[in-house]
Design goal:
The chain is α+β, with helices and mostly antiparallel strands. It has 8 helices and 18 strands. It has a 6-stranded mixed beta sheet, with helices on both faces. Strands 7-6-12-9-10 form a 5-stranded mixed beta sheet, with helices on one face. A 3-stranded antiparallel beta sheet has the order 2-1-5, covered by helices on one side.
Length: about 350
């Protein structure tokens, strides 16, 4: 009898342990799922390009993609019309929102209304919003976090004698040499004059800067270019050396933008054997459009007794052949030669 009782109890305990084990197997995945929530693949970008993200929610398109590249000048970013901002007020979800900077540079926030943020950095904008909530006695110690969800395209236009003229994307201010470097630098025909046009409410303003490759350009590093500016690198002046010279053509007034008669003749590889050096002339365009012939003492310059005349852009140094008596008899031919002359730059 006792053996039968023991056998029955053993069967019941075995059935109990089997049921307990089955329960543990079924419940374990549920507990594991609760203890280990769903992992997010990837990380949201610090500079998202989409504008559909909601406060307190991650953007799925960003969460599943790689990090977006942040421009190197993002730290200098200043808010401008068109920016989409994500404003989060700590522990106040009803005050957190997204707002786009309007044409006047304002955003509208709950309870405090319009806030002007154009030209401010992110840190400055955060402080302005905090001060607004504090001044309106809505929050005693507001903590505001501002993130840029979308930023408006900002660029600088570089024109003239640069290697790659066009528009350059620029978020923050950069020095003038840096912007010229982004455009590939100056060409061999670049002069010493650089003009910067800055837009304004009352119309654009213009600043002119002088720079020569043979001089120290430290002062240009202090010139800051902002988004919206237009830079124009002027072409260097050209002086034409024509007539009885070994290499007639046009010569760019490079470096410091100056060139005298002796230098121009030297660039033209000197006079030829047929030159009538006693009748060398500089032909200059007068303001009224007429041509003025200025005689040059070539022998005095070569002897070091006469200081070489400084030339101006578009001047023509004409060395006549010995058969020609005056420069005026071939004036029309000389102007035609200048128009077809090859332009040379210093090596």
């Amino acid at each position: 009898m006792s053996n039968i009782i023991c056998s029955t109890m053993h069967s019941r305990y075995r059935f109990f342990f089997q049921c307990l084990l089955a329960t543990i197997v079924c419940v374990s995945p549920v507990l594991a799922q609760q203890a280990n929530p769903m992992q997010t693949v990837g990380t949201s970008s610090t500079l998202p390009l989409g504008g559909n993200a909601q406060p307190g929610r991650s953007n799925p398109s960003l969460a599943q993609g790689p990090l977006s590249a942040v421009p190197e000048d993002f730290s200098d970013l200043r808010l401008a019309p068109g920016f989409l901002l994500n404003v989060e007020v700590y522990d106040e979800p009803e005050l957190s929102t997204q707002a786009r900077v309007d044409h006047d540079g304002n955003i509208v926030l709950p309870l405090i209304g319009s806030v002007h943020l154009t030209g401010k950095t992110v840190a400055e904008a955060e402080k302005i919003i905090q001060d607004k909530y504090r001044a309106a006695q809505i929050l005693k110690n507001p903590q505001v976090t501002l993130n840029v969800e979308q930023y408006a395209s900002a660029s600088v236009t570089v024109l003239g004698e640069v290697q790659a003229p066009g528009r350059i994307q620029l978020l923050g201010p950069h020095s003038l040499p840096e912007v010229l470097g982004m455009a590939g630098g100056e060409t061999n025909l670049a002069g010493e004059t650089i003009q910067v046009e800055t837009p304004g409410k009352d119309g654009p303003t213009y600043q002119t800067y002088h720079y020569a490759r043979g001089k120290d350009g430290n002062e240009l590093r202090e010139v800051m270019i902002k988004p919206g500016d237009t830079i124009t690198v002027k072409r260097a002046g050209i002086v034409y050396v024509l007539g009885a010279v070994n290499r007639p053509g046009g010569y760019v007034m490079q470096e410091d933008g100056t060139l005298n008669v002796a230098q121009a003749l030297s660039l033209a590889l000197g006079t030829s054997l047929q030159a009538k050096i006693g009748s060398v002339r500089v032909v200059r365009h007068s303001p009224d459009g007429k041509l003025t012939a200025i005689p040059i003492s070539y022998k005095g310059i070569m002897d070091g007794k006469v200081k070489p005349m400084q030339l101006q852009a578009e001047d023509i140094v004409y060395v006549p052949v010995s058969k020609i008596k005056t420069v005026f008899t071939t004036g029309a031919t000389m102007i035609g030669e200048a128009g077809a002359a090859t332009i040379y730059t210093a090596p």
